[in-house]
UniProtKB/TrEMBL annotation:
GO terms for cellular component: membrane. The chain crosses the membrane at residues 15-32, 44-64, 76-103, 115-133, 139-157, 169-190, 210-230. The keyword Transferase does not apply. Keywords: Hydrolase, Membrane, Protease, Transmembrane, Transmembrane helix. It comes from the Bacteria. GO terms for molecular function: serine-type endopeptidase activity. It is a multi-pass membrane protein. Residues 76-209 form the Peptidase S54 rhomboid domain. It comes from Nostoc flagelliforme CCNUN1. This is Membrane associated serine protease, rhomboid family. InterPro entries: Peptidase_S54_rhomboid_dom (IPR022764), Rhomboid-like_sf (IPR035952), Rhomboid_protease_S54 (IPR050925).
């Protein structure tokens, strides 16, 4: 299922949404350059969310060494940076397609500032949930999945029956159909199964494929839905 557009008219230009899409694309091209130069693994391990490092730094800061708070602050910053990193072509294409279709309408309802706040906060909170769910995980977690899940949650709580123009690929045929917006809440999680396609060469293998990722996105969807309800 490939969403193309919705039937909700927007009065204002979604400037923040355009910027978010542009930044994600620019960062991904930077990742590709690093892959060719051999520095991608170090980059992802430096800026990806590694639950074991964050939980270990917090434990050391609380019980052993106050200086460890410097590491905590540094690793906490990765909660935001990791939102703009992606581990495969399929992941960034899927994420940005959802952001293109659903983000502009959510930004139109919330306004530029609140939309950006939702995107960043929900993405960071989703990463925190992943850390809490699997505190001993040593694999770097990257991707804007949590942030975009919050956008989807906000959209569906406001426009559950909006019509989404969709292309259904069937081998060599592409069939245009319309689906209700709430269908994409289900499809969002199915889509995650294909995000390993076209993976970049990032050691260790398995970036952003942990069980905690699922719960992080569930929380992000609820945050988006709750944020939109408060707007009402």
């Amino acid at each position: 299922m490939i969403p193309i557009s919705d039937n909700i008219r927007c009065r204002n230009k979604p400037i923040i949404n355009y910027w978010l899409i542009g930044i994600n694309i620019a960062v991904f091209f930077w990742e590709l350059q690093l892959e060719f130069s051999g520095g991608l693994g170090y980059f992802v391990n430096s800026w990806g969310v590694i639950p074991a490092q964050i939980s270990g730094a917090i434990t050391n800061a609380l019980f052993y060494n106050n200086a460890a708070w410097i590491i905590v602050i540094w690793r906490t910053f990765s909660l935001l940076v990791a939102i703009f990193l992606h581990g495969s072509f399929s992941q960034i294409l899927g994420n940005l397609l959802f952001l293109w279709v659903f983000g502009k309408t959510v930004e139109n309802i919330l306004g530029h500032g609140r939309y950006l706040g939702l995107y960043l906060a929900a993405g960071a909170i989703a990463s925190c949930v992943q850390v809490l769910a699997e505190p001993s995980l040593t694999v770097p977690l990257i991707g804007g999945n949590g942030a975009i899940a919050s956008v989807l949650g906000a959209y569906i709580i406001k426009f559950p029956k909006a019509k989404i123009d969709t292309i259904l690929p069937l081998i060599i045929l592409y069939i245009p159909i319309q689906l209700p917006a709430f269908f994409y809440l289900f499809w969002w999680f199915v889509q995650q199964l294909f995000y390993g396609i076209g993976s970049l060469n990032i050691p260790p293998v398995g970036v952003n494929q942990s069980g905690g990722v699922f719960w992080g996105q569930v929380v992000a969807i609820l945050i988006g839905a709750g944020f939109m309800r408060l707007k009402r």
